[in-house]
Amino acid sequence: MKAIINPVKYNLFLVKPYWKQYLLLVGFALGFPLLMKDLGVAPFYSAFLIFMTVSYTFSIEEKNNGMRFIGMVPFKRSQLVIGRYLMNLMLFLIFWLIVMLIEPILFDLLNVTAKNHENFWQSGLLALVYYLILASFSLPGFYKYGAIKGRWMIYIPLVLIVLLVFIAQFFNWDSAKLEALLNPMVLLPAGVLLLILSLLVSIRIMDQKEF
Amino acid sequence: MTDAIVLSNVSKSYLDFSLSDISFSLPKGYIMGFIGPNGAGKTTTIKLILNMIKRSGGRINVFGLDNQKDETEIKLHTGVVFDSHYFFEEWTVKEVGQVMALFFSNWQPALFERQVQQHQLPLNKKVSQLSKGMQLKLMLACALSHDARLLILDEPTSGLDPVAREELLELLTNFIQDGERSVLFSTHITSDLERIADFITFIHEGRLIYTGTKDDFVSAFRLVKGGLEDLSPEVKRDLISFRTHSSGFEGLIHAEKIGLYPNLFAEDATIDNIIVYTYKGSKTHESNH
Fold this sequence. Notes:
Helix content of chain B: 25-40%
Helix content of chain A: over 70%
Number of helices of chain A: 10
Low-confidence stretches of chain B: none
Radius of gyration of chain B: 21 Å
CATH class of the largest domain in chain B: Alpha Beta
CATH architecture of the largest domain in chain B: 3-Layer(aba) Sandwich
Strand order of the largest sheet of chain B: 6-7-8-3-9-10
Structural class of chain B: alpha/beta
Largest sheet of chain A: none
Mean pLDDT of chain A: 87
Oligomer: heterodimer
Order of helices and strands of chain A: HHHHHHHHHH
Number of strands of chain B: 14
Distance between the termini of chain A: 27 Å
Radius of gyration of chain A: 18 Å
Strand content of chain A: under 5%
Largest interface: A-B, 26 and 30 residues
CATH superfamily of the largest domain in chain B: P-loop containing nucleotide triphosphate hydrolases
Number of domains of chain A: 1
Strand content of chain B: 25-35%
């Protein structure tokens, strides 16, 4: 168990000096929906903003010759990759949960009339799927090309989403079909599977990597 | 007796550089100087030993174990010091200790504290605020706080002041005292090796030039001097390389050939002499072809 938990802790040590940025992002994630008076978009803001931190560990390592550190510690590369995936997922879930629990309270406290409040938890689950897809595509990219050069991988899921919207409009899909397609209960396990697949790809990339 | 490190016919190919057929062994309880000019392949060899890069051929054993199959077991007992630190610059010295403890199950916090005190490292200072010498000491403190049986040092003394260098050499000499621990020490500052190394491995342009005891290495060559009139075609042919000045020449020759030229003044060659003249010789050889 330590073989997995300790790499998670190592990643937390890497991002420790950036806790203020994390808090700021949570603040933005909580603040924007209030300004837009839309509760349904809150989880998506949190997902996208927190997703921006996924590259932190990679860029910190790049800047600090971290691969040399990785090269001399007695851990398997696969354990280090699993640790990083878990840390990112864990941080996201914490911030996501904060937003999901606090946002409705904030709307109530500030007496803001919210749009889409009835779909709040469904939006939350879809945001979770959205995060899983973003992370699944970008993490192998960061492992393969680094934090800066690998950023283009983020656009793959965005392009896929735009494509889906385009297809839906082109074929005039009705709302029932769209709802069936965007059912979080189906998409969530698919997102988890995609993340596991992404993890396996990242382990393979890391195993072949030379530094 | 198990050797600490054994490399057998190790090779690694890149587009513009290749390391070919490198074989040497470092017995337990000794210090090996790993030398060669810039770009000779020293760091590549060290990275191969640490499995940071994959070998194209050959075999590497550390403590009798395969360096790829038993990588984690080997690294548990290996301390590594590079020419520059490998820590996150925002970490404090104390945090470095905490992070290392995550990875080394044999980490000894009390020993780390003692090392930190001994090297006068300020616990709450960030790595970025430490001088180069202090950063090196921090790497050493880490390398020595998990019961390492092998120290691998890649150019650690470059940029160190003479006092810090002296301390490092003393520390390495003490490290191998129990006869169980070994040091592979890559450096440009060969005067350090003259003092502490038992073995020398010399590589040049990715090829092994020499591996063996330091005494045999030094005694295998002689530094010869003479007047310009002594620089006959035969002498030129037998010299590994030479340089001329207004009143004569100085060059390096294989010791067994010195008897052929009793008129030349011969003296012991230093490791520096051997590296410089071998390097120069290979360049002359290249330009002649």
